[in-house]
Design a protein that fits this description.
Strand content of chain A: 15-25%
Shape of chain A: elongated
Distance between the termini of chain B: 37 Å
Largest interface: A-B, 43 and 38 residues
Oligomer: heterodimer
Shape of chain B: globular
Strand order of the largest sheet of chain A: 1-2-3
Bound molecules: FE2/S2 (inorganic) cluster
Number of helices of chain B: 13
Number of strands of chain A: 8
Chain lengths: ~280, ~400
């Protein structure tokens, strides 16, 4: 069980400002049910431009509820200029600290606030749009978000980045890149989770054999799985170790299509054909 | 806090008072080493052998086929690693399932990633069932071992071990089953079912933690995991955990005693809990079909499992969840995902697991509290559309 502070438990048990503001001035929505946490934040300003009313709804764990509740308490009475200065650390501190693995809950709070302010100022839809290059496909985390979490929180390891942004917490395929971003920002070698160097006995395959094996694996191991959810996959091309696939049926619209590619399709091909294969989606 | 309502028995169980009583003298008076030549140790040796016979009786096996281990994980590891390395060098294919306990799953990944074995992890369908034809098709020339759990710890889904063992035997492939969740709960007759290796754990059947057993069918070649002295017939070195072994023996006797009445009683309680929860909580669903009588895994849509657990805890109710947040990883339960359960429902899943000590009052307590908890969390949830 997590070691939550009394203040976290208090805000979890008695969350402040739960609800919906019908004619809110700003609404921000972040996260999704698929990702395991989501937050909707709404505020209303008074004549002086101070936050007069603020409400939230959340889907998430104890610390997600507590973080959202804390955020609303901190926001009341602030101008948007003041509100903008709130960081995720401020939210965590207000609660007397959060377990390291739960810091992403405080980041979620800060993001919802930003989305709501954006929505007020520019009339945007109040959802965080992925800006910049997506580094972590599993959780849709961009380079910009990772950089920001590192700078603002003084992060130095890949695990910390995962705790603050979720990036790297799925298939783990983006960990190398996170290490590189850390290195670039911190200017020195990041501590990466140590992975034993193992040389696997490799099968030597000719190109034709490789393509055949890939096709077989798709037919036998992958397609039946996707079909269950009304989806399908087609092999478009093989370019060296790059396997180019196209998703069909319901897989196309699925928000976790990338997740499927990285956690189902790629591992299968790696285990049945070659460790070196990478799967990409045909554009 | 109110009285503890303990419904997390697939995680661990209460030590039976009879087990504590049986162990007690071995923590105080009878501390002799069973390997010693003197009669003070010899007396202990006889009790250890008696316990071995009691554990063997759980499976209709002979005492010689039982190795005492430190628990389920050790048994799983020894069964897989200890047999594969003795097979001919061309047998480098290991078949298991996608829903195994980490003690098997991680061994499979280790064999694949670090030892160059070929690994097949069989999928399950939305009920949690295996496709036996697919299992059969995946057996190849190089297949050395198949390991399939008897019942799943998260969903309680029971696999048809009789059939799987028969398939493996027909193809000349060794077969191991992780029986941690069924040992002591379902009758098991290894004289009739051609299982080669079976692991079990003491603390799931009201014995203490740190003791378990591995059944190795007579004639099956197996290497020890722990090398050293000649204990356990040379198959596991180290001075015996005598109090633990005595406790496991007593727990096995208790389990065998009145197994069918107990399972009927527990099933009735579980079914009442299941019906009650589905009736009182909308948008909830049971995960897995053909389940062990003590397990109920329910998903409550639109809310998250850790929050539910924290609220249950306030009422002294212990359960567990497949939610990512409760586990400290970011990925929700791989077992529930393997059943194709949508992420949304996995995040809000709760497992209630009962035992012979579960009472009517325990079930009442959950049925009384749960609807309120679900309502409160749904009040907060942005995914529940409320009429304005
Ligand atoms: S965890 Fe980042 S891509 Fe999978």
């Amino acid at each position: 069980m997590w070691d939550y502070t009394d203040k976290v438990m208090d805000h979890f048990r008695h969350p402040r400002n739960v609800g919906f503001i019908k004619d809110a001035d700003g609404v921000g929505e972040v996260g999704s049910m698929a990702c395991g946490d989501a937050l909707r934040l709404m505020f209303k300003l008074d004549e002086q431009g101070r936050i007069e009313d603020v409400k939230f709804q959340t889907f998430g764990c104890g610390s997600a509820i507590a973080s959202a509740s804390a955020l609303t308490e901190m926001l009341r009475g602030k101008t948007l200029e003041e509100a903008e200065k709130l960081t995720n650390q401020d939210i965590a501190e207000f609660l007397g600290g959060l377990p390291e693995q739960k810091m992403h809950c405080s980041v979620l709070g800060r993001e919802a606030l930003e989305a709501a302010i954006e929505n007020y100022r520019n009339g945007t839809i109040g959802q965080v749009q992925l800006e910049g290059r997506v580094v972590c496909i599993c959780f849709g985390v961009t380079e910009e978000k990772i950089e920001r979490a590192i700078r603002e929180n003084g992060l130095s390891t890949v695990d910390q980045v995962t705790n603050y942004t979720k990036a790297g917490g799925g298939c783990g395929g983006c960990k190398d890149e996170i290490a590189q971003i850390l290195e670039r920002i911190n200017g020195h070698l990041a501590v990466k989770e140590s992975q034993p160097e193992v040389s696997k006995p490799k099968r030597k395959l000719t190109n034709i054999q490789k393509i055949q094996l890939i096709q077989e694996t798709i037919d036998r191991e992958i397609r039946p799985e996707l079909k269950k959810d009304g989806g399908d996959v087609e092999l478009v091309d093989v370019d060296g170790d790059k396997v180019i696939l196209s998703l069909r049926g319901s897989c196309v619209e699925c928000r976790v299509a990338q997740f499927t590619l990285k956690t189902l399709v790629e591992p299968k091909l790696k285990s049945f054909v070659s460790e070196d294969l990478v799967v990409v989606e045909a554009k | 806090m109110s009285r503890t309502v303990y419904l997390d028995n697939n995680a661990t169980t209460m030590i039976a008072p009879e087990v504590v009583a049986a162990m007690q003298p071995y923590l105080t008076d009878f501390y002799g080493n069973p390997s010693s030549m003197h009669s003070f140790g010899g007396g202990v040796r006889r009790q250890v052998d008696q316990a071995r016979a009691s554990v063997a009786a759980l499976f209709n096996a002979t005492p010689e086929e039982i190795i005492f281990t430190a628990g389920g994980s050790e048994g799983d590891n020894q069964a897989i690693l200890g047999t594969l390395e003795l097979l001919p060098s061309n047998k480098r294919h290991f078949i298991t399932t996608r829903v195994e306990h980490p003690a098997v799953r991680e061994v499979g990944h280790y064999l694949r990633d670090q030892r160059g074995y070929r690994l097949t992890e069989l999928p399950v369908d939305s009920d949690g069932a295996l496709d036996l034809e697919q299992l059969e098709r995946s057996i190849a020339e190089d297949t050395g071992l198949i390991s399939v759990m008897w019942a799943n710890n998260e969903t309680g889904v029971i696999f048809p071990i009789e059939k799987i063992a028969a398939i493996a035997k027909a193809r000349g492939v060794l077969f191991h089953t992780d029986a941690v969740q069924v040992a002591g709960k379902l009758p098991i007759d290894l004289k009739k079912i051609p299982v080669d290796l079976l692991s079990m754990s003491g603390h799931k059947i009201h014995a203490p933690k740190g003791i378990g057993a591995l059944y190795v069918r007579e004639g099956t070649k197996i290497n020890p995991l722990i090398h050293g002295g000649h204990q356990e017939n040379g198959k596991r070195a180290g001075t015996e955990n005598v109090p633990g072994i005595i406790g496991l023996g007593r727990a096995a006797e208790l389990a065998l005693d009145g197994m069918s009445e107990e399972s009927g009683r527990v099933r009735a309680l579980r079914d009442r809990l299941e019906k009650g929860l589905l009736a009182s909580c909308t948008d909830s669903r049971v995960n897995g079909r053909n389940r062990l009588h003590n397990t109920l895994n329910v998903s409550f849509e639109f809310i998250e499992g850790e929050s539910i657990l924290l609220m249950l805890d306030e009422y002294g109710i212990c359960a567990s969840s497949g939610s990512a947040c409760a586990s400290g990883s970011l990925e929700p339960s791989y077992v529930l995902r393997a059943l194709g359960i949508p992420f949304t429902a996995v995040h809000g899943s709760i497992r209630f697991s009962l035992s012979r000590y579960t009472t009517d009052e325990d079930i009442d307590a959950v049925l009384e509290r749960m609807p309120g908890i679900v309502d409160r969390l749904r009040e907060i949830s942005p995914f529940v559309q409320k009429e304005a």
